[in-house]
Design brief:
Blueprint (H helix, E strand, L loop, with lengths): L1 H32 L2 H14 L5 H23 L3 H20 L8 H23 L8 H22 L26 H21 L2 H18 L5 H27 L9 H11 L4 E8 L2 H8 L1 H16 L6 E6 L2 E7 L3 H18 L1 E3 L20 E3 L3 E8 L6 H17 L5 E2 L1
Parallel strand pairs: 6-7
Antiparallel strand pairs: 1-3, 1-6, 2-3, 4-5
Length: 430
């Protein structure tokens, strides 16, 4: 009978793990395709199906300039120089193609040279700007990308002036003779540049899983459609504008995450905490303010890096708080937990479980011989470890009267936390 029960329990655990893996995969897939992939697919469907003749000219006149203005404004406002540079590159590519290679101009002469140059340089620029760090627009480090853009414009101009130069034929060079390549107007050097860029940007997304890396990938996809469909004109302009729009949306999304989520611990930040209390409205709830005992001494003795690791460890415990508690990083070493529709007496057992969990777990200080990756046999490295005792003090207060404003509940919880610390810490005060 016990074997049967164990088997049923194991089956339930396996199903639960499979469900969690499935949900995680769907979340990853959703974050990858939304909003960049959805935008590219939607624009592709609309353009390939054909827009009404009245709508298309209006969209062309307004859409690119709105995206250009929004990109430059948001880039300047949030000090994101990469967005400004990529928007400028997309705008230069679009205008150059419209001037020299619109309609059939991309098949011969100067138009073909400009088209081939854009096919090679655009993916290269996207990869370069995805790799560089944000240094601001007005610094020396922020100005060299602008010089790089101007250098490329001058170089392409010189190639166009001297059409018979020995360099221009390489833009059209065929490495492999296949009929498949004849289906796309893009020359093989451009296809290779896009292929390498696709691989690099996808690798960076898998490595970092950030919205900005995902945006760079879909910007590349939209730019590829603009060039590979062979219709230099209204269609390519809309695809280039969509590339810029994807980056603008990613900047807004990233700014939102910075405002509502703490980058160090992964917990929602103070702004999200305040919004949660405002949304609860007239219902009763319990607020708990939490602080790590002797955190300053730990940070001073072992360094800021260890202090950050301690914060992340405590945050990992807060993420698992029971009783439907919602955890936040309030400020510094201070955290907050909200228990909606719970009185303080109901929240205490869950807070006590949290306090004991931190106390029992403690923090293992990395020894000089301990590897960064988990070894196959961890027992061999335990001798180099040092355990730091950790404890947290908690102040918990409930709000029964719906007329009491959240700021007064927070103030009362802060006072309760102060009382817990005065009593020696590692306890809960109400």
């Amino acid at each position: 009978m016990l074997k049967i029960l164990d088997k049923l329990q194991n089956n339930k655990e396996k199903k639960f793990i499979s469900l969690q893996v499935g949900i995680s995969f769907l979340q990853t897939l959703f974050s990858f395709f939304v909003p960049g992939g959805v935008l590219v697919l939607a624009i592709s469907f609309i353009l390939l199906r054909g827009l009404p003749t009245i709508t298309l000219p209006l969209l062309i006149r307004i859409y690119p300039y709105v995206v250009l203005a929004a990109g430059i404004w948001f880039g300047w406002r949030f000090n994101r120089s990469r967005l400004i540079f990529v928007i400028l590159v997309l705008a230069f590519a679009d205008r150059s193609l419209l001037i020299f290679a619109e309609a059939s101009g991309a098949s011969a002469g100067t138009g073909r040279i400009v088209y081939n140059a854009v096919c090679i340089l655009l993916p290269v620029n996207l990869v370069v700007f995805s790799l560089i760090k944000e240094r601001g627009f007005i610094t020396w480090h922020g100005k060299w990308p602008l010089g790089m853009i101007l250098f490329q414009i001058i170089a392409v101009t010189l190639i166009c002036v001297w059409k018979q130069s020995s360099f221009s034929p390489y833009l059209e060079y065929s490495f492999i003779k296949l009929r498949l390549f004849n289906l796309i107007p893009m020359a093989q050097p451009g296809l290779i540049a896009f292929g390498v860029a696709f691989f690099i940007l996808m690798f960076r997304y898998v490595q970092h899983r950030s919205s900005i890396e995902c945006a760079f990938f879909w910007t590349l996809v939209s730019s590829f459609f603009a060039l590979a469909l062979g219709d230099i004109g209204p269609m390519s302009t809309i695809f280039f504008a969509t590339s810029g729009l994807i980056l603008v949306i990613s900047l807004i999304e990233t700014s939102f995450n910075f405002s509502f989520y703490d980058d160090l611990t992964g917990l929602p930040a103070r702004r999200a905490f305040n919004e949660t209390l405002s949304k609860i409205g007239g219902r009763h709830y319990t607020v708990a303010m939490i602080e790590i005992d002797s955190f300053k001494k730990i940070s001073d003795r072992y360094g800021l890096l260890v202090g950050d690791q301690v914060l992340r460890m405590v945050a990992s415990k807060l993420k698992k708080v029971t009783g439907d508690g919602l955890s936040y990083r309030y400020s510094g070493q201070r955290f907050a937990v909200v228990f909606p529709v719970k009185f303080v007496d109901e929240a205490i057992p869950h807070l006590e479980s949290l306090r004991k969990g931190v106390e029992i777990y403690g923090f293992i200080l990395r020894g000089p011989r301990r590897p960064r990756e988990k070894p196959a046999n961890p027992e061999n490295f335990r001798g180099s470890q040092k355990r730091i005792s950790l404890a947290i003090a908690i102040g918990a207060v409930e709000r029964e009267d719906k007329n009491v404003k959240p700021k007064y509940v927070i103030k009362a919880a802060d006072q309760a936390l102060l009382n817990a610390q005065k009593e020696g810490g590692n306890q809960i005060a109400t």
